[in-house]
Here is the input.
Amino acid sequence: MRERGRSTLRASLDDFKKPWRDAREKGYDRVTGEGYYRNAHDFDAARTLLLEPAGADGDGRVALCAFDPLTGADHRSTVVDAPADAVLVVDGVFAFRPEYHELWDVRIWIEVTEAVSRARGVARDTGLEGAGEAVRLYDTRYRVGEQLYIDEVGPQWRADVVIDNTDIDAPRVRE
Here is the structure.
């Protein structure tokens, strides 16, 4: 998009999660699969700080991060002015949830098999968590949350484009 002269902004819904301290203080379950799916993300912050301001009727003043997922630092007051013709590219799990439904212009579903997803998730988390804990997190939190999302929302059916990313070096658009 930049090569075609369009201004772009990049954000991740992972930067719009409720801080861990809020989960502890307010009793949110974030550690089970269902708790991760239902409680980890701050849908209001993502809507009001990022998606609505970047939309056609927004003022273009967007926060690209609410809370740093690793440090917990609050970045909600750090805003950038998006040019009127800017394209906002947002990634993240659970992006097609009803809380965001009307805010997307184009939805892209990245698809892999469950085995590939597990291998990548475990590899991602092993360095920080250790191999055993990475497997446990994937099997009890991330996979369970993703399955709830697939069952309740049907994101692959809401997508405008589906990309098979099983071979990470050769992704392909699925017909």
In short: Helices lie at 20-26, 33-39, 43-54, 114-129, 131-153, 155-158. The radius of gyration is 17 Å. Residues 131-153 form the longest helix (23 residues). Residues 1-92 form one domain.
